[in-house]
Amino acid sequence: MCPFCDEVLSGTSFSIDLRDILDKINVNGGTKQDPTPQNPNHLIAQRGLTASIEFCVQHRHEKQYQVALNQGWPTRPDFIDLPDRVAGLAE
Questions:
Q1: pLDDT per residue as tens, the chain (91 positions)
Q2: d(C-alpha 4, C-alpha 22), whole Å
Q3: What total of structural domains would you count in the chain?
Q4: Which of 14, 25, 47, 70 is packed most tightly, with the most Cβ within 10 A?
Q5: Global pTM value
């Protein structure tokens, strides 16, 4: 569960990117515990809401990336053939 917005996170641990962002938040003012009934590990960034936004944006990105992978989206799009593929859709 996200320590800031309480959204359910995919996976059981933070990614390297999420850990790096949390480290940056802790260096720039830190966090304080603010447990809620739904999330006993809830945190508040001492420098305000904007300090935690990057963390939440990143975990949402990671979740959507996983959804895209599960749906078969390419991780390396073929931009050379893209114009022909798009033109083929219009036919």
A1: 999 999 998 777 899 999 999 999 999 889 999 999 999 999 999 988 888 999 999 999 999 999 999 999 988 888 999 899 889 888 6
A2: 10
A3: 1
A4: 25
A5: 0.77
